[in-house]
Amino acid sequence: MTLSRQAWIRNICRTIPGVRKLVLSFACFSNKVEWERDGEKQGEGGQAVVEIALALPIIVAFSFAMIELCLAYYSYCMISETAREGTRYAIVRGATCQTGSGGSCTASASTINSVVTHMGWPNLGNGALSANTTYPDGNENPGSRVQVIVNYVYPYNIPFAPKGSLHMSSTSVMYIVQ
Questions:
Q1: Which alpha helices (H) appear in the chain, and where do they start and end?
Q2: Could you tell me the residue ranges of all domains in the chain?
Q3: Residue 104, Cβ neighbours under 10 Å: how many?
Q4: Whole-number Å distance between alpha carbons of 119 and 60
Q5: 133 with 148: CB under 8 angstroms?
Q6: How is the beta sheet containing 128-134 ordered, strand by strand?
Q7: CA torsion angle for 85, 91, 92, 98 (degrees, to 10)?
Q8: What is the pLDDT of residues 132-160, one digit of tens each?
Q9: Which one-letter DSSP state was computed for residue 18?
């Protein structure tokens, strides 16, 4: 003689009092799983479509916003490195810079600005980059400082948000060595 599932559960609950709650909760869980499978056949399958229709635009907008945030961070790192590279270029091309053949290799502020704006870093944000080189100590002699300021306008485009731009700036100061 075989027992039905419900009769088996009743027998377990009567004989072992400590597992009654556990067995009943498991039985309710397993019945719920079966009911949900049957429920989809009775017209509740469209609930998932509605949930996806509501959640998908939010997930997509959040994903594109994160991409824009990463591009903005990359752009800031790009201008920071560009300012450092421009300053390094300037510190070895001071007033006393000479080539191996005895010629001068000094660089003016406009030359340094041109080098900085044409460094070749990938401009993934398609923003406008500008550089400004100054000598805070007033001359290009070794031991004096050179300062390169790089400004960048990053245009962002986030779905469901107004378009705008983010202004970034990075400054690098070093001492001229030759």
A1: 5-15, 20-39, 46-91, 109-117
A2: 5-44, 47-175
A3: 11
A4: 34
A5: yes
A6: 128-134, 145-156, 164-175
A7: 140
A8: 999 999 888 888 999 999 999 999 888 77
A9: G
Residues in the chain: 178
The pLDDT of residue 30 is above 60: no
Tell the residue number behind the tokens 């990359």, with chain if given. 74
In contact, 146 and 176? CB cutoff 8 Å: yes
Q: How far apart are CA 90 and CA 106, in angstroms?
A: 9
Task: Report yes or no: 76 and 167 within 8 Å, Cβ to Cβ.
Answer: no
Q: Kindly report whether the global pTM for this prediction surpasses the value 0.70.
A: no
Between CA 87 and CA 119 the distance in angstroms is 12
Parallel, antiparallel, or unpaired for β 164-175 and 145-156?
antiparallel
